[in-house]
Amino acid sequence: MAVSVDEAVSTGPARDHTPPARRLGGRGRSVLEIALLTLLAVVMLFPVLWMIETSIKENRDVYAIPAKFFDFTVTLEHYKDVFVAPGGGRSALSVAFLNSVVVAGVSTLLATVLGVPAAWAYSRFAVKAKKDQLFFILSTRFMPPVVVVVPIFLMYRQVGLIDSKLGLILIYAAFNVPFTIWMMKGFVDEVPAEYEDAAMLDGYTRLQAFRLFTLPLLVPGIAATAVFALIFSWNEFVFATFLTSSDDVRTAPPAIAGLIGGTTTDWGLVAAASVVFALPVLVFAYLVRKHLIAGVTLGAVRR
Amino acid sequence: MAGIEVTALHKRYPDGTVAVEHVDLSIGDGELFVMLGPSGCGKTTTLRAIAGLERQTTGDIRIGDTLVNDLPPAERDIAMVFQFYALYPHLKTRDNLAFPLRAEGLPKSEVQERVAEAARLMRLGPLLDRRPRQLSGGEQQRVALARALVRRPRAFLMDEPLTNLDAELRADMRTEIKHLQGELGATMVYVTHDQVEAMSLGHRIAILNKGRVEQIGTPLEVYDRPASLFCAAFIGSPPMNLIEVEVADGKLRSQGGLALTPPPGLPRDRRLVAGVRPEALEVTEPGAERSVPARVVSAEWLGDEIIYVVDHSGQRDVRVRMPPTVRFAADAPVGLRHTGGTPAVYDVSTEELVA
Hints:
The complex is a heterodimer of chains A (303) and B (355).
Chain A: H1 2-9, H2 26-55, H3 59-62, H4 77-83, H5 92-124, H6 130-139, H7 145-159, H8 165-190, H9 194-201, H10 206-235, H11 238-243, H12 252-259, H13 267-287, H14 289-297
Helix pairs in contact in A: 2-13, 4-13, 5-8, 5-10, 5-12, 8-10, 9-10, 10-14, 12-13
Chain B: E1 4-12, E2 18-27, E3 32-36, H1 43-51, E4 58-63, E5 66-67, E6 78-81, H2 93-104, H3 108-121, H4 137-150, E7 155-159, H5 167-184, E8 188-192, H6 195-201, E9 204-209, E10 212-217, H7 219-224, H8 229-234, E11 241-248, E12 251-254, E13 259-260, E14 272-276, E15 281-284, E16 292-301, E17 306-312, E18 315-322, E19 333-338, E20 344-347
Helix pairs in contact in B: 2-3, 2-4, 3-4
């Protein structure tokens, strides 16, 4: 069992690279597969491609009819507009991005700091009505945000958390803690409790044993869980729209959405802002992709 | 080294399950004490309570003269060996051994000395620079034993340490543990569900069932006179034959007429069951002297012995251990004869040994 955990949480490359099996139908089949997959990829990725193109086109090319696919002048003007206000100084969008970084980062940190020890406790200790408690924790995720946003708006107005970053951080953390507990409990279950028992007999307290032996083995799981939480907080739109109003507090999703509408829409700016918004999560997910896959598949197979 | 006293131990989990109902143990200094029982009998919980990994609901635990109820595991000065070895995966063997000593804050030279000594005792020399995942199961368990040794604790607790090893290795490690225990004069509490392990290792064995101690005794006592029907059915492979008997003409007689010598002091007017070991019976030619008619149901040919399963009027599946030279075909009519001494006799209603 100990060995299987080591393998599951190993950060090194997988040991058995089985060569792709040659399937029935041989060449004809694989051509068809590739053709279908290419078609799907084009359909799925076209909007993304168009977004990237729009973000680097000059305005007259953006509105050109027929649309220009290749022969347009490349400009980074829109990206400049994302960060710099027309009269110089910071733009409202750049403030929104910074807000997003703060809100998503702090709420993820909070959810992880609260969720990981909770998951450990639920995994290790005999708790009264453990299953009911865990189900209750999960049940807080059952309701779609839109359903609870009005009551939360009213409560926040009472306690003065409306239109504050702290308010968003708290609500995102509240949404991420159940998720963190459930996902991390799976990881903790996979780490044999004997490590902690042994460490406690060797002279450490329970918490030291957790910190020194279990926690290092949980790092990949924590990374995977935190990325999921981060993506949720980064993308969240409903609460951000309802609970914030001023440019100082607003996060990127409502800020970008706010660019659309009015008399004219600067599509180049919208596209550039969207690209900037999408990049951090993509990069982050790419960096921890191994952990992500381990995180999603761990425990899926009974060893 | 020190003895261990467990008094009226009771453990109930917050969710209401009772793991240990009532356990009293008195383990001597330098004794190899085995706790034996089926899974869920409370043996591991009792061990973990002694280690301090579980807090008992009520009851007292003393190690030496110290009442350790409220001491954390680290301050009880004991070492434990786990079923899954629990070697720290990121540390080499050498560091795994040194770990508990460093935790105690011993000087470097002393740590090295003790690690070397433990490595010599468990013959770990070539393995010192490997990590746990590079070791086989048997090697890992030797490292785990060595890690328990370096501490020079007052007692060793072993939680099914051999269960994950294959049969051959298990026999070797059994010998090794027994030898080590004798050499160190260590107090050792050993938990297992394997009766062979318990019989071959233990100075004394405690048989646990449903959170209670059914019997404590030397391996021979436990084998010869199981204290209850549970122990009778648990110890021995194949287990004791439990034959319903009545007292008649100064003999214990089964329904089929098998006659056994009654032990003195039998109570009257109670339904009784005699426990007869398979080697205390004999399969004979039909009609042999003092034999009762029986029929062979099946025979297990084990090489060094044959286990016959026979029916004898009303009593099904009586197991008889015979030398491999005595051969009867399945379904053959045979005789069944008691050759042993006085059997253990149990009361059917209380399930306990009465004489």
